[in-house]
Structure formats: C-alpha cells, structure tokens
Design goal:
Distance between the termini: 21 Å
CATH superfamily of the largest domain: Jelly Rolls
Strand content: 35-45%
Oligomer: single chain
Number of domains: 2
CATH topology of the largest domain: Jelly Rolls
Shape: globular
Largest sheet: 5 strands, antiparallel
CATH architecture of the largest domain: Sandwich
Number of helices: 3
Length: 290
C-alpha cells in the first residue's frame, strides 16, 4: 500500500498538471503537452528568503561527485547517463531527458559510469601512436602513405577524445537560501544557469516539488489561470515568450528562464516554427501539517 506522503505528492502533481490549459488560434487541437518527470516531498524549505537555483554540471567518464547532501531538488539530464547512488537506498539511473528527485540531506553521489568507451578510445590512441613510431622506423615503400593514414586516424580519434561524447551534462534544480546566491560552484566546470528573484508569500510546508517537461507546438499557447505555488520555467530548446500577470511579455531563448510567483497567471507562447520545450519546476504547499 502506498504511503500517505507519496499519495499526497502524486495528487498534488496531478493537480499542478491539471492547472494548465492550452490554446492555439486557428487550430482544432492545441497540441501542448505537459509531462511530470519527477516529484518529491520537502518537509521544509531553507529558513529566511529563498530562491530557485539552476546549476549546470558536466562529468567526464568515470568521474564521481560526492558523497554529499543538500537541499531537496532535482537532477535533469541534458546529455549522457547520470547515476545517482544513495546511502542505503536504490541507485537511480537517469538518461538524457529524464529527471530524478533527491530529498533533503539525503547522502548521495553523482557518477558518470561510462568508463569502458573512454578506456577503449585511450587504448586505441596509444596503439595508433605506437604504430606510427614503428612505421616511421621502417624502410617499406609505402611508408609515407601508411604514416599519412595512421596520422589521419590519430587526429580523428583525438578529436573524438576532445569532444568527449561519453561525458554527461545535467542540471541541479532546487530552492536555496539567499545566502547561497552567487556562491562558489560545486565543481570547477559547473555554471550558474539561473537564479530567480526571492519566492514570495510561501505558505507553511510541507511542500511538493514537481519537475515537468512542457512542450508547446509552433503557434501554440499554454496558460495557467492561477499558480498554486511558485513555478520557474527554463527553455530547453526553441524560442518563446512568457507573460506573467499583466506584465509585458518576455522573450526566452535556450537556457533562459523566468519565475511566476504564487497566485500569478501565466501565458507561454511559441511564435516560432519549431516546437518550444521548457522545463518547469514548481513548489506547492501540500496542505497538511507535520
């Protein structure tokens, strides 16, 4: 039988998804899609002013980040495979386009377990280098031609190594305290994608945090009549425009984001010729004590 907190989280997630409506002038069906990627429960948020933070991180094959613990939040994978290992709990594997929840102070590690392809490539580069050295010492008639071929293969393999297609790239999205704004990144190659304004009028927790993927077709429009909690929108691909309450419409491109506060009305439009894909992160009070 499902636990009561899980039931609350699922009900809240469905309620949030149901808050969205879709419209597209001149179209019989809007085609707007809203899909829940992950949901989780936060017993409380950090004390004092808080904001939505989105950090982008990249890990090379075999790299491990952690173990550590932090505020509740989500990992969303842009590229590669992200493995999240928890202390005493099942491991979570996330492929590109998937998201997973990490609870408050849950001890875990982020891993890129793609060691085998990288090791094979490294061994191949070494073998080609050795072959080049051997051929350069021979006196065979086709030495120059063989060396040219080996050099070309070496350059191509080196380019693949620099590209590092087995690296993973992912976001961490969560609510952080004001003191963490503009803070030091957790990894040298991490980057700060978005920091929202402070969240306003938050009711007492506990809270349900939800990560969704929203897709708006060309010419389409998605609306929320009244936000049940603060919601941040981050563009993954395409170009769009967002209007919050009676404010002027704001254009958004890839990796740009906007925040809608509790109670706000939202209108997202896609004036472009390609589908608009957005990541949505929302925080809603669960409506129960303890």
């Amino acid at each position: 039988m499902a636990s009561w907190p899980l039931v609350v989280a699922l009900v809240a997630g469905v309620w949030i998804a149901g808050a969205w409506t879709a419209s597209a002038p001149g179209r019989p069906t809007a085609g707007v899609e809203s899909r829940i990627l992950a949901t989780g429960r936060a017993q409380a948020l950090p004390e004092g002013p808080v904001f939505v933070s989105v950090i982008e991180l990249r890990q090379t094959p075999g790299a491990t980040f952690g173990p550590h613990a932090h505020v509740p939040g989500f990992a969303y994978v842009l590229e590669g495979l992200e493995t999240i290992s928890f202390a005493g709990e099942p491991t979570m594997e996330l492929d590109a386009g998937q998201g997973g929840f990490m609870g408050a102070l849950a001890i875990h590690s982020h891993e890129n377990q793609g060691r085998v392809p990288a090791a094979v490539l490294a061994a191949g580069l070494l073998a080609i280098g050795v072959a080049l050295s051997i051929v350069s010492l021979t006196r065979i008639a086709a030495r120059q031609a063989v060396m040219a071929v080996l050099a070309g293969v070496f350059i191509a393999a080196g380019a693949v190594a620099l590209w590092d297609p087995w690296a993973n790239n992912w976001f961490f999205i969560g609510v952080r305290p004001e003191a963490a704004r503009g803070g030091v990144m957790p990894l040298p190659n991490a980057s700060r994608t978005f920091e929202s304004s402070n969240l306003e009028s938050l009711p007492t927790g506990p809270y349900t945090e939800t990560l969704r993927l929203v897709t708006v077709p060309p010419g389409g429009q998605a609306t929320v009549e009244r936000e049940p909690g603060p919601e941040a929108f981050l563009v993954l691909s395409g170009q769009g425009a967002i209007r919050v309450d009676d404010n002027a419409s704001k254009s958004l491109e890839t990796t740009q984001a906007a925040l809608a506060q509790l109670g706000a009305s939202v209108q997202i439009s896609n004036p472009g010729e390609d589908a608009l894909s957005l990541l949505s992160f929302s925080v809603v009070a669960s409506g129960e004590g303890g």
